[in-house]
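Kindly inspect this chain:
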Amino acid sequence: MSKTAALRLGTRRSRLAMAQSGQVAQTVRRITGRPVELVEITTYGDTSREHLAQIGGTGVFVAALREAVHRGEVDFAVHSLKDLPTAQPAGLVLAAVPVREDPRDVIVARDTLKFTDLPRGARIGTGSPRRMAQLNGYARAHGLDIEMVPIRGNVDTRIGYVRGGELDAVVLAAAGLSRLGRIDEVTDFLSVDTVLPAPGQGALAIECAADDADLIAVLGELDDPFTRVAVTAERSLLAALEAGCSAPVGALADLLADGQFVKEMRLRGVVGTTDGSRMVQLSTTGPVPETDDQAMALGRELATEMLAQGAAGLMGERAH
C-alpha cells in the first residue's frame, strides 16, 4: 500500500464506537499525514437482543472487526479494551493501548441524585453482572435497599429509562460518556473503593495485522506504556480466573506515585455473586512492571490468592 493511500479503520457502528474510533483516526492522521477512513462493521453483539451474560459476553463485539483485519478489508481496528477476549489471536497484534480515560463507573440518576441518596427500593439498571454484584454487596454492607434491573442498549437507550421514569438510575462507564461529550449528565462518580471497574475499562485497544511492520510502528506512537502494563495486569487476572468478560470480575491496576516518581503498581481484584451476598476482594502491590510478562505475573499471583479464597465458585459462567 502506498504511503499516501487512506488507512482504513474498522469500527463498530454504535455512536460511542464511532466517537472513540474518530478520536483515534484524528491522531493517526496527525502522526502520518495520511487520510484515515472509518469502515463501519456490524458485530454480533450489536444485533443480538439477548443479554450479554446469555450470549457469552466474551468477544461478541470483537470477532467481526478482527475478521475484517484478517481479510484485509480494513488496515486496523479500534476496540474498547474491556470487550477483548484475553487470548490474543494468531496473525493480529495489539499495536497500541493509548492513555486511559477515567476507568470509574458512574450513576445517571433522576433528580440529580447520588447513589447513596437514592430512595428505598430504587430501581437501578445495568447489563453488567460485575456492577450488580458490587452494588448489591455495597448496599448489603451499608443497609441500602436497591433493586438491580438487567438492561441492554446503547447510552441513549439506557439514560432514556431514567428520563422516562422507568428506572431511578443507570450505571455506565465514565469513559464512554466522556468520549460522547455527555459527562455532564453524570449525577455521581462511583469510587473504585465502592465498585472496581471491568478489567481494561476506560482503555482502547488498537489492533492490526502482525506482519504489517510499518503500520505497527506508526500505531505504536499512540501507545502509553503505563496504561499498557496496568491493563495487562488486569486482563491477566481475568484470564487466570478463567472468566469471560461478562463474568462478575472487577480489577484495577493503579500506579502509586511518590511526588513526581511512580514507585509501585497496586492491583485490586474482586469477584462476587450477583446478589452481593458473597465477595472475594484482594489486592497486591509491587514494583511497576517493566514488561508484559511481569504485568501478567502480577495478575496471575493475585488470581491465585483469590481462587484460594473461593473465587471460582462465585463466577457462574466459566469461559474455556
Remarks:
- The longest helix spans residues 15-32.
